[in-house]
Design brief:
The complex is a heterotrimer of chains A (161), B (171) and C (783). Chain A is α+β, with helices and mostly antiparallel strands and 161 residues long. Chain A is 25% helix and 49% strand. Chain A is globular and about 45 Å long. Chain A starts with a strand and ends in a 6-residue tail after the last strand. In chain C, the strands form nine sheets. In chain C, strands 3-7-1-14-11-12-13 form a seven-stranded mixed beta sheet, with helices on both faces. In chain C, strands 9, 10, 15, 16, 17 and 18 form a six-stranded mixed beta sheet that branches. In chain C, helix 14 packs parallel to helix 15, helix 15 packs across helix 16 and helix 17 crosses helix 18. Classes of the chains: A alpha+beta (161), B alpha+beta (171), C alpha+beta (783). The complex binds FE2/S2 (inorganic) cluster (2 copies).
Chain lengths: 161, 171, 783
């Protein structure tokens, strides 16, 4: 299992950020290389994404379910699925806090990969998984700040295990 | 897809799926099972054949890439006049055990000798380093290639002499 | 250069191999070369998880995919009572998973289609829902109370498979209590894989008109496989015809029965057409019989001068998810108790605990006789640890401790009776040939200059040729072996054996043995193996057992033929049987050497001109049950130089002096030694199959699981001593595996010797440049 985490500040009110992150229709498109998004309910959605790790390229079929830990502040996203004989299990957690210039979003994501992707792409996965998770949150920030006047300072740190 | 490949001297016209690998085209479509498959990562060289004279790992070449080319497999090494010197030397020097790597080794070695008729031991080992043998420990394979090289050089010298001699008499 | 097989009196001569002409022409017939009319192809879906609940499998889409004829899941097999199969070790193994998956790459479903590609395409359409469970990767954790129980199918709710002991605990404790010196060391033998160049595979061909199943399979033990198959499937044994065609190397990997085999058979039974399954290299490494994976602890008790007293060994053996080792029934840890090696220990006690983990099943021998390699590596490593501790040269320490020539037959403290050996002579020969004293001098000079050069010795004793049937069986089948010889009217012979070669040259060596007994040439004798319809029953080729068992059977069978031939000769020579003598090439009347007949004359007479009352024909069958095992041994010396900047080890020289008793074909024996040394080298420096904490296999292909090329491989030097086995009909001991058993310790001892000035006393294999570099860095040798 690998853990990635980071935080950044968005020039936007907390309520607005919250509304965004718990809406599959808005969150879904933040996933990079998204091929299809199928929202089943307010909390359940399915995505088809393109992935490539080293020599292995193909599609992942992922089921996501969103749950609220603390309304307006903390939400969790469980993503499960796989493809190409491989499996992915992710548990992401987001926490929103008021910050001076907007909202601070802290995230942490535990990623467990199995199958050929893990054994063959092993040494490449770390970078790839980090890239994907970081991209999700970068997209989220960009979307939220699209109409904001200036982009806030952001910082993304991560650690793999 | 239609392809035309000259395999061991005869022209084959075949319809192949674009994803068909040359190794399977040879083995399954043409029934030339001397070319073996030992891995799925292009490491072992059991599938080595000559494509327009150059050694390739046929598990990593698409059959359609061979369209219009000349492919030589182990089945073509033996001539009417007898075994290829490499075949004879592998036999004489005990250069094989289970025999699974042998066709690939022979093809890689023949390409090596075509380029370098008098290789050092180091050059032979380098030249065959794309081919894995799990049985022999390579000692006798190297010996066999050295012997075959010597034999081929001697044959070459002899035929040059004959040419010279026949040239001299015809003048 | 070798002689031709037409040589007279071929025993002991290097003659070229009879099997080679087909291989050098690309005309070998390996299982994937066989094409049968109407044949379909099978591919397997494997689990991405090491440990997970199998919640649901949806095969609808796959069933409808182009070319697909059949999809099988564990549930389908369960209806036929075939979801599980017995292993050779007496455990059960899932054929296709039901309920749970227990290792990554475990077989979950099978698809049969018109082409290989269609079958593989359809695999992608099978939707499986898993619920991942925590994986048990560490075998030490496996037996703690916190660890989840992996095998809930078993009655015993524990991850422990067996606890096994050999030797005398109390006597050993007593020796340790008074010992002036005790050294201890943890030693790991990594998980490695035999990885023959040809992966495993089969074609199952069930003919519903004759009710006969013909099964072409990469099998080192076709007869045993047929019996297992008959027991599992309920098909009558005589209706199963197992053909083991040319095999592209085995090294133990082709001993077990694999789930893919069973699926192909089920598919052929239900479709009535031939079904071929050929695994990929990745499938081969990730799911078929691995070897070793022993976590060992050794204590040696000794005198101050290094004379050994007692040996204590405790081992945890990681068997993976199912116990699919192929050890004889009474020996769950194989012949590991040979661990006292070539040394005169007063007492020894050995314990092995086998455990389940979420890894691929196996524990087969990788070119070794049932865990002998682990044992040999451990004791040879331990002797060096002791030498270092007491400050005695590694060669000298061994000479002080060898079992002496006069002690044979020698009863070891763990109960083995060694047949013969002359260890001191063999080591002396090796020391002289390599110029040991000179090398030590050179090393001293280099050390003074800060250079890292090492010399490593291994003087191992093997135990092969299982085996006497009173002690050894596999699934109850006694481990004898057999030969059948038929001499045809023109004096040409077809001989069939119960073993199955995979490159060892049986078609030549057994022909030599039989030709020698019958006064023929190897050319006159055709050897056939691997066809259960024609060959006599035997247990197969592995663990260096062919020469000790089937070799004995071939010789004795030849002698049985000769007995009858002698009667015929007497008839032809018109003398009494007692007046007939055999000189190795012909029968003659005593005192009248000119009056002679050859085996060819006799053979013709057997069909044309018989004495009154004699049964026609000239043939015999012999089932040979060896009275004991054989104990090949050797002295190996490695010389290495280590690059201080990169940690790369270069093996400058390697000398193997083997004593494998009498040698049938020196060229073939030498070839076996070269091959075995290369595998030993690979194990010492390159090979390991690690798993991450989630149970992902991190080396499932030849990009990550390394096999040496011609460029990596050292130049081997070989020599021999010859102490015939006193009980074997031709004095042979078997050799195929000695070099792999004996060499890893020589390599590691050499590297540790090179690093010993830094205070290094042990390193675990594989000794990759990275690992060596880390040690160098730790000791400030490199940045
Ligand atoms: S099959 Fe191994 S390199 Fe082609
Ligand atoms: S002879 Fe078996 S792999 Fe080379």
């Amino acid at each position: 299992m690998r853990t990635y985490q980071g935080d950044f500040t968005i020039q936007s009110a907390r309520a607005k950020v919250w509304a965004f992150v718990i809406d599959p229709n808005q969150m879904g498109p933040c996933i990079p290389d998204l091929l299809a998004l199928d929202v089943h309910s307010e909390t359940e959605f399915r995505t088809l994404v393109r992935v490539g790790v080293g020599p292995i390229r193909g599609k992942f079929d992922l089921t996501s379910s969103l749950s609220v830990a603390e309304n307006g502040r903390q939400a969790a996203l469980v993503i499960k699925g796989g493809g190409m004989g491989s499996g992915v299990d992710m548990q992401a957690e987001m926490t929103l806090d008021d910050a001076e210039t907007g909202t601070k979003l802290s995230w942490q994501c535990d990623v467990k990969v199995s199958g050929p992707i893990a054994s063959i792409g092993g040494r490449l996965i770390d970078n790839e998984a980090r890239k994907i998770t970081e991209k999700v949150f970068a997209n989220l920030r960009d979307a939220l700040e699209a109409d904001a006047a200036e982009s806030g300072q952001s910082e993304v740190a991560s650690s793999g295990e | 897809m239609k392809i035309t490949v000259r395999v061991n001297g005869s022209v084959c016209e075949q319809d192949v799926e674009p994803r068909t690998l040359l190794a399977y085209f040879l083995r399954e479509t043409l029934g030339l099972t001397g070319t073996h498959v030992g891995c799925d990562t292009t490491n072992c060289g059991a599938c080595t054949v000559l494509l327009d004279g150059r050694p390739v790992k046929s598990c990593t070449v698409l059959a359609v890439q061979a369209d219009g080319c000349e492919v030589t497999t182990v089945e073509a090494l033996e001539q009417k006049s007898g075994l290829h010197p490499l075949q004879q030397a592998f036999w004489d020097e005990h250069g094989l055990q289970c025999g699974y790597c042998t066709p690939g080794m022979l093809m890689a070695a023949s390409a090596l000798l075509a380029e370098n008729p008098d290789p050092t031991e180091e050059e032979i080992r380098f030249g065959l380093s794309g081919n894995i043998c799990r049985c022999t420990g390579y000692v006798n394979i190297v010996k066999a290639v050295q012997n075959a090289a010597a034999k081929m050089r001697a044959d070459e010298a002899k035929s040059n002499e004959e040419v010279a001699v026949s040239g001299a008499t015809s003048e | 250069m070798a002689l031709h097989p037409s040589e007279a009196r071929p025993f002991g001569k290097s003659i070229t191999r009879k099997e080679d002409p087909r291989f050098i022409r690309g005309k070998g017939r390996y299982v994937d070369d066989i094409v049968l009319p109407g044949m379909l192809h099978m591919a397997l879906l494997r689990s991405p998880y090491a440990h997970a609940v199998l919640k649901h499998i949806d095969t609808c889409a796959a069933q409808g995919a182009p070319g697909v004829k059949l999809v099988l899941t564990g549930e389908d097999l369960a209806k036929l009572n075939l979801a599980w199969m017995p292993t050779l070790a007496g455990d059960n193994q899932m054929v296709l998973a039901t309920g749970k998956v227990l290792f990554q790459y475990q077989e979950v479903a099978a698809v049969v289609a018109q082409t290989r590609a269609q079958a593989e395409d359809a695999l992608q359409l099978i939707a499986v829902e898993y619920d991942a469970l925590p994986a048990v990767v560490d075998p030490f954790y496996a037996t703690t109370p916190e660890a989840p129980i992996l095998r809930d199918d078993r009655e015993q709710k524990t991850n422990s498979i067996f606890h096994w002991e050999a030797g005398d605990r109390d006597a050993t404790e007593n020796v340790f209590a008074d010992a002036p010196v005790i050294v201890s060391q943890d030693v790991r033998f990594p998980r490695v894989h035999p990885s023959p160049l040809e992966p495993c595979g089969c074609i199952a061909d069930y003919n519903s008109a004759t009710s006969k199943l013909t099964w072409y399979v990469t099998s080192q033990a076709p007869h045993a496989h047929r019996t297992v198959l008959s027991l599992v499937s309920g098909l009558p044994e005589h209706q199963i015809h197992v053909i083991s065609p040319d095999i592209g190397g085995g090294f133990g990997n082709k001993v077990p029965v694999y789930p893919g085999y069973v699926c192909a058979i089920v598919a052929s039974l239900s479709l009535g057409v031939p079904v071929k399954w050929i695994e990929t290299r990745t499938e081969n490494i990730s799911s078929t019989g691995f070897a070793r994976d022993y976590h060992m602890h050794v204590d040696v008790a000794a005198e101050e001068d290094g004379k050994v007293l007692g040996l204590r060994v405790k081992t945890v053996a990681d068997h993976g998810a199912f116990d699919a080792a192929a050890d004889p029934t009474k020996f769950p840890a194989g012949l590991f108790s040979i661990v006292t090696g070539s040394y005169n220990f007063k007492a020894a006690f050995v314990e092995v605990d086998g455990v389940y983990t979420n890894k691929a099943p196996g524990g087969v021998a990788y070119r070794c006789s049932f865990r002998v390699t682990e044992a040999s590596y451990l004791i040879e490593r331990a002797m060096d640890v002791l030498a270092q501790k007491v400050g005695v040269d590694a060669a000298e320490l061994r000479l002080r401790n060898f079992i002496q020539k006069e002690q044979f037959p020698y009863l070891s403290p763990t109960g083995w009776t060694y047949d013969s050996g002359d260890y001191a002579t063999t080591l002396q020969k090796a020391l002289e040939l390599i110029g040991y004293d000179e090398l030590r001098k050179e090393q001293a000079e280099k050390r003074a200059r800060g250079e890292l050069m090492g010399i490593g010795i291994s003087t191992f004793t093997e135990i092969v040729g299982a085996g006497p049937s009173h002690t050894f069986d596999i699934m109850g089948i006694k481990m004898f072996d057999s030969a059948q010889i038929r001499v045809h009217p023109t004096g040409k012979v077809i001989a069939r054996l119960g073993v199955r070669h995979q490159g060892q040259g049986h078609e030549t060596t057994f022909a030599q043995i039989i030709a020698e007994e019958l006064g023929l040439t190897a050319d006159d004798v055709l050897i056939e193996e691997g066809d259960t319809d024609t060959a006599p029953y035997g247990l197969g080729t592995y663990a260096s057992r062919s020469t000790p068992t089937a070799g004995g059977a071939a010789a004795l069978c030849g002698r049985r033929v000769r007995e009858k031939a002698k009667k015929l000769a007497a008839h032809l020579l018109e003398v009494g049987e007692d007046d007939v003598t055999w000189d190795g090439e012909k029968f003659s009347a005593a005192g009248l050497p000119a009056k002679a007949v050859t085996m060819k004359d006799v053979a013709f007479a057997a069909y044309t001109n018989l004495p009154e009352g004699m049964e026609p024909g000239l043939e015999a069958t012999y089932y040979y049950d060896p009275p004991n095992l054989t104990f090949p041994n050797g002295a190996y010396i490695a010389v290495v130089d280590i690059d201080k900047g990169t940690g790369a080890v270069s093996v400058r020289r390697f000398l193997a002096v083997d004593d494998c008793g009498r040698v049938i074909n020196p060229m073939i024996v030498e070839g076996q030694i070269h091959g075995g040394l290369t595998e030993g080298f690979a194990i010492a420096f390159m090979q390991d199959i690690p798993y991450d904490e989630d149970g992902n296999c991190l080396a499932p292909n030849w990009m990550d699981y390394l096999v040496p090329t011609a460029l990596d491989t050292p130049r081997w030097e070989t020599a021999r001593t010859e102490t015939p086995s006193p009980h074997h009909p031709i004095g042979a001991k078997g050799v195929g595996e000695s070099p792999n058993v004996g060499s890893p310790a020589a390599f590691v001892n050499a590297v540790v010797d090179a690093l010993s000035p830094l205070g290094v006393t042990h390193m675990d294999m594989p000794l990759s440049p990275w690992k060596v570099w880390q040690v160098l860095r730790e000791h400030g040798v490199t940045e």
